[in-house]
Write a structure and sequence with these properties.
By secondary structure, this protein is of the alpha+beta class. The protein has helices spanning about 1-10, 10-35, 45-60, 80-95, 105, 135-145, 160-165, 175-195, 200-220, 230-260, 265-290, 300-335, 345-355, 360-375, 385-390, 395-405, 425-435, 470-480, 490-505, 505-525, 530-555, 560-565, 575-605, 610-635, 645-675, 685-690, and strands at about 70, 100, 120-125, 155, 380-385, 415-420, 440-445, 455-460, 485-490, 570, 705, 715. The strands form 4 sheets. It has a 4-stranded antiparallel β-sheet with strand order 2-3-1-4, sandwiched between helices. A 4-stranded antiparallel β-sheet has the order 7-8-6-9, with helices on both faces. Strands 5-10 form a two-stranded parallel ribbon. β11 and β12 form a beta hairpin.
């Protein structure tokens, strides 16, 4: 770190020039990157996905979700309007790649509601690339035109129709607008922290880091697919991470200058101490994300590759450009210097002494809060958003409600497709699937030109999460041994695909992240117990966030009031893994910031209590300010139109605040105080293996602190 800082100071113009070029090139890349990102949701090797590929080859459709035209007769007898329904269905079938099956073509009265007033059809179209379905407008306009003069009330429901009619519209602020909103919130916090024009420096560092990351992502798209989610992560998480890292280094630089160091010496010391914590934090976040490549899902792998660049680029910019700028103009922009850094925060020092004095109470309160937050996690469901949460008003919602009142369940939205090798094998498959409890009806499409037949199995209830997919297993068990069976496709099988592909590997991902982080932090803290505690607390903290997300989003306690979104019923499969990867790394930032300073103070004084008081007194304001900055970034991200992005943003935002308050400001100092001298132990053999200085067990020095409430430096007893 010292050599890095010295190089940046001595060659500051070259360093600034290099990053200026990256800034300009990144600005150009940022407008190109969104068009190069992928919407790949494939699951290679999984039954549901591979069967959907066969369906696409045979019929041009994937069969995962259906659009459902609903026809209602004003005279109360829909069966008398079969010809009108046939004409509308025929117009829909003429759409590119569309397949339609319903009452008009089959005469099957199971396509009618119990009261005989309404009928429905199942419309399958090619799977869109991305969230927006380019055929949605064609379907709506075709249905409206064909329905004119029919005398029927014609409506359309389905997942796409419910999504577009919900209060959560497809329109939302651009990534640029979200970033500017987050930057404004960060500026307010920085002005409070620095009380000088120095507040602008972290924002400049963040701008360089974000645009440089976009440039690298552009290069990455030449090598591999990168998910569309990465653009949001680079802009918003990159903003928060770069500012947080800058905040730590700049604060330490001001502290060293306040203690009389020359400007360049202060820069080197800040990078050697705070910069070391930044490096450890950045690598930890990167490790958490790159571990996603172990999951055999292209979407998550691309997020791992793309997301890894965010902390690495931010770290690189902070450790090179920031010291160059501080060396060049730091003292001049640190004006009017209303806030001084010569002493620790009186408020945080007093808080730390209180935590040390009542450490058992503090630890108990922290554990109780986390336990309450974790409790709902045992009801967490994985899958897709339920139809009930997509819309609570509008024509699509009303059409689905009318079907429900007429005895037709929501399973019409998520039929199961059984692919059969030849028409001769279809009757046996139809009969077997039709006998499964929970199946409303089984109807085959006309044979495809290539031979395979799509047998549509319509369950009573939608199959969108890991509880409701039991019907898929029942259907598979009933038909898998019959001649001609080639597999199941649809929403239910896709849910099971994700269960197999993501969560069978997730324990390995978790273990790898925890192990590498533990080893890295052993080198950083020169301790066995501190990194073990850090990893354990991070896992508990992430579990608490999942519990709160379950309570708020899945069960809907507050989501409607704040975001206009009713309970989702489940969390999208890719969200828990991505939330874990980001939150584990970002939360570890604050652990490193706090414990690195405590380790430094312990090495200087030999007192655990003094290390806790001085460490928290020096970093408490920084950690809470950094958490607020990230929170503003995530709040801006939560304004994105997609519900899944809202869940991601709010989970990360709440997780950061929970971690910075309950965990780092209460539980960590309490536990460090309780563990005493054992916090700092690193045996000689392990230190030699890690290539760091050993830290043998030794009694704590007399428990005194140099920090008093009035800011004067004089000995004060601390328990």
């Amino acid at each position: 770190m010292s050599r890095t800082a010295t190089f940046a100071v001595r060659h500051r113009w070259w360093v600034i020039g290099f990053w200026l070029v990256m800034l300009v090139a990144g600005a150009g890349a940022s407008s190109v990157v969104p068009d190069r990102l992928s919407f790949d949701f494939s699951l290679p090797g999984q039954e549901g996905y591979e069967t959907s590929v066969k369906l696409a080859e045979a019929y041009g459709i994937a069969g995962d979700m259906s659009s459902v035209p609903v026809y209602t007769a004003p005279d109360g007898d829909i069966s008398g309007h079969r010809n009108e329904i046939a004409r509308i269905d025929a117009a829909l079938a003429d759409l590119p790649g569309a397949q339609v099956i319903g009452y008009a073509g089959t005469g099957d009265e199971r396509f009618l509601t119990d009261d005989g007033r309404s009928a429905f059809s199942l419309l399958f179209t090619p799977t869109p690339e991305g969230f927006a379905d380019p055929m949605a407008g064609q379907i709506t306009s075709t249905l409206a035109q064909a329905g004119q003069g029919s005398g029927l009330d014609v409506r359309l429901t389905g997942y796409q129709a419910l999504s577009t009619s919900s209060a959560d519209s497809t329109e939302g602020p651009s990534v640029l607008v979200e970033t500017l909103v987050g930057a404004f919130g960060a500026l307010i916090v920085l002005i409070f922290v620095f009380a000088s024009f120095l507040a602008l420096v972290p924002l400049l560092i963040a701008a360089v880091a974000i645009l440089s990351t976009f440039l690298v992502v552009l290069g990455l798209t030449e090598i591999t697919d990168v998910s569309f989610v990465v653009q949001f992560l680079v802009a918003l998480i990159g903003l928060g991470v770069a500012i947080d890292y800058s905040l730590l280094v700049v604060s330490r630089w001001r502290e060293e200058r306040a203690h009389g160091a020359t400007n360049d010496d202060a820069v080197v010391t800040a990078v050697r101490t705070a910069g070391h914590a930044v490096l450890a934090s950045g690598v930890t976040v990167a490790i958490s994300l790159i571990a996603l490549i172990l999951v055999p899902v292209p979407l998550l792998r691309s997020m791992g590759f793309g997301g890894m660049l965010i902390p690495l680029m931010s770290t690189l910019v902070v450790l090179t450009l920031l010291p160059a700028l501080l060396s060049l103009v730091g003292p001049r922009v640190d004006w009017p210097r209303i806030r001084r850094e010569s002493k620790a925060s009186r408020g945080w020092s007093a808080w730390a002494r209180g935590v040390v004095r009542f450490r058992w109470v503090a630890a108990g309160v922290g554990v109780a809060v986390l336990a309450l937050a974790i409790a709902p996690v045992f009801g967490l469901q994985f899958g897709m958003t339920s139809s009930a949460s997509l819309a609570d008003s509008g024509p699509a919602h009303d059409a689905l409600s009318d079907l429900g009142e007429g005895g037709v369940g929501s399973g019409v939205l998520s039929p199961i497709s059984a692919v059969v090798a030849s028409p001769a094998d279809v009757p046996a498959i139809v009969e077997a699937a039709g006998q499964v409890d929970g199946v409303r009806m089984v109807v085959p499409l006309d044979p495809s030109s290539s031979g395979p037949v799509d047998v549509i199995v319509v369950p009573d209830d939608e199959t969108v999460d890991n509880n409701s997919v039991a019907i898929t297993d029942d259907v598979r068990e009933a038909v898998s041994g019959l001649p001609g069976y080639e597999g199941l496709a649809g929403a239910g099988p896709i849910v099971q695909d994700y269960q197999n592909a993501v969560y069978d590997r997730f324990p390995l991902v978790l273990a790898l992240i925890a192990l590498i982080t533990f080893v890295l932090l052993m080198r950083t803290f020169r301790s066995v117990l501190l990194p073990l505690k850090a990893v354990a607390l991070n896992l508990v903290s992430v579990a608490a966030v999942f519990g709160l997300a379950t309570f708020f989003w899945q069960e809907g306690h507050g989501s409607q009031a704040l975001f206009g979104v009713t309970e989702t019923g489940a969390m999208e499969f890719w969200l828990p893994v991505l939330i874990f990867a980001f939150l584990f790394g970002l939360s570890m930032d604050y652990e490193v910031f706090l414990l690195a300073r405590m380790r430094e103070e312990y090495d200087r004084t030999g007192s655990t209590s003094r290390a806790v008081v001085e460490g928290l007194g020096r970093t408490g304001r920084l950690i809470t300010s950094a958490a607020l900055i990230l929170f503003f970034s995530f709040a801006a991200l939560a304004s994105a139109p997609d519900t899944d992005i809202k869940v991601l943003a709010t989970s990360l935002g709440v997780g950061i605040l929970l971690d910075a308050t309950v965990v780092r400001s209460l539980l960590v100092p309490a536990l460090v105080s309780l563990f005493g001298q054992y916090n700092w132990w690193l045996p000689v053999w392990l230190a030699r293996l890690l290539r760091v200085e050993p830290s043998p067990l030794r009694p704590d020095a007399p428990a005194v602190s140099e920090i008093e409430d009035d800011g004067e430096r004089r000995p004060v007893s601390v328990p």
